[in-house]
Amino acid sequence: MSGSLRVRVTVTAIAVLLIVLPITGLVVKAVFDAQAERSLDSLLTGRAQLAQQLARQNVAPGNLVRRVDADGVRVTLILRNGRQLGAPPIEAGGNVRQVKATLQAGVQTKGATLMLSADTSLLADASSRLRTVLLLSGAAAILITALALAIGMRFALAPLDAMTGLARSIAAGRRGGRLQPERADTELGRTAAAFDEMLDALEGAEGAARRSEDRMREFVADAAHELRTPIAGLQTAAETLIQLGPRAASSERGQLELLLVRESRRAGTLVSDLLELSRIDAGLQLQLTQVDLHHLAESQAARLSLVAPDLDVEVDGIAIVTADPERLTQVLANLVDNARQAGAQAIQISVTPAGVMVEDDGPGVPPEVRDRIFDRLVHSPQSKGAGLGLAIARGVARAHGGDLTVGDRADGKPGAAFYLRLSHPQ
């Protein structure tokens, strides 16, 4: 893979020529030799047929010899009385190709013997010259091909050089460059287009990673800020208890101990929520089973009747779904607690096979912040939490293949409506 593509293509092309040209030359020479042999045989046979025709026309022997004579053909006519006309006879064999015929007509030529001889050394010379021409032209073709490839490959591989230069510029930190091929229906065009698509994906992933890193840094900073308050409260209460010592009044000590419990619980809840979010990010493992949504909603209504007796909670609808009951309980508890903390006096929980809708008569959620309230560490002034509950609830909903959104109430009255949609794999 490390060899030069130009050298490899050039060497391959020359190697192919070195194989093809000799084979082609041998085939051409064999065809030439065979065709020359056939042509010579045809010439001698044709001259003999011409002599027979002239004899039938009663042409004189001398005239017949002159008319049958041709370049490269030696004509000898031996009459019945032994008289010889034309060239002296020679023996066939070696470099001599000979055809004999007995004339069948003519007053003077009937019964005469006609000998037509041809020197095949001329064919051998022509074959030798052809071989020389083929060798020289083959060598010239190889040399010209090598030079043409050396020059042509520079232009043919220019797109690859552009890809290499672009890849090196990107590796050096310069982003945004693209090949932008004029034609994407060729091999190099498709390669260049795929290269551009890869760069788009890489730069998009790099941008997403940077944004994710920025969000993570912001989240860590916000989490540290949120933890700072309960930790500071714990530290202050502990230091005060130490300073007061055993002489502290029981009421004052009780308040400080209550503060320690409350702040430690607040810090513990925040840490638990952060761990829960990390599990959601890593891929929440659900324990799917058949769940009665009406029963889960009734359980939350019963809990609220103990926590907030003045709060009116109604549940309607019946549905059995496949879900994780503990996770859905977590989501419903978060939704009804948020409604209670927002100042709602009545909560309506509607159950359907598609999910759950929780409506309240509180102040509602303005349209401009409806997406933002599901971000991490975002909470309203009325909220007593760290702003992770809705982020966790949406993560659980999406782990089920659904979502959690907020909008207006279906009846148009003031308040908020949270829609928990479920769509889990069967």
Automatic annotation (TrEMBL):
Gene3D superfamilies: 1.10.287.130, 6.10.340.10, Histidine kinase-like ATPase, C-terminal domain (3.30.565.10). It catalyses: ATP + protein L-histidine = ADP + protein N-phospho-L-histidine. Keywords: Kinase, Membrane, Phosphoprotein, Transferase, Transmembrane, Transmembrane helix, Two-component regulatory system. The keyword DNA-binding does not apply. GO terms for cellular component: plasma membrane. Residues 222-426 form the Histidine kinase domain. It is found in: Cell membrane. CDD domains: HAMP, HATPase, HisKA. GO terms for molecular function: phosphorelay sensor kinase activity. Its EC number is 2.7.13.3. SMART domains: HAMP (SM00304), HATPase_c (SM00387), HisKA (SM00388). Pfam families: HAMP, HATPase_c, HisKA. The chain crosses the membrane at residues 12-32, 133-157. Residues 154-207 form the HAMP domain. It comes from the Bacteria. It is an enzyme of class 2 (transferase). This is histidine kinase. It comes from Kribbella jiaozuonensis.
